[in-house]
Write a structure and sequence with these properties.
105 residues, alpha/beta, Transcription Regulator spoIIAA, 4-stranded mixed β-sheet, two-stranded parallel sheet
Length: 105
């Protein structure tokens, strides 16, 4: 399940719950595409309700980070579950940023 919303301060939040995997990857990409095309500078991907993250779905996040304005933007990924966070650590996705402002896990 993926939902998205704008916050009053202009931050766009995409929340993904349940299994985030090869099958939900296209839905996550679509949820991120709109605000990225509009030029959002603050993007949050909230995985608080994710029970499983497949490494095949993680390629969406580095792509989103590359589309953000490198100087004035920020991508924050919320991953409180240690089991889900382990996938990020193993794959190195938390270190994907090439900009001076890295993704915060």
């Amino acid at each position: 399940m993926i939902s998205s919303r704008w916050l009053a301060n202009g931050t766009f939040v995409v929340a993904a719950g349940g299994e985030v995997d090869l099958y939900t990857d296209p839905e996550l990409e679509r949820a991120l595409a709109g605000p990225l095309a509009e030029g959002t500078t603050h993007l949050v991907v909230d995985l608080s309700e994710a029970t499983f993250v497949d490494s095949t779905a993680l390629h969406v996040l580095p792509r989103a980070a590359r589309q953000l304005d490198r100087e004035a933007s920020e991508l924050i990924v919320v991953v409180p579950d240690p089991n889900v966070r382990k996938v990020f650590e193993i794959t190195g996705v938390g270190r994907f940023s090439r900009s001076p402002r890295p993704c915060r896990l």
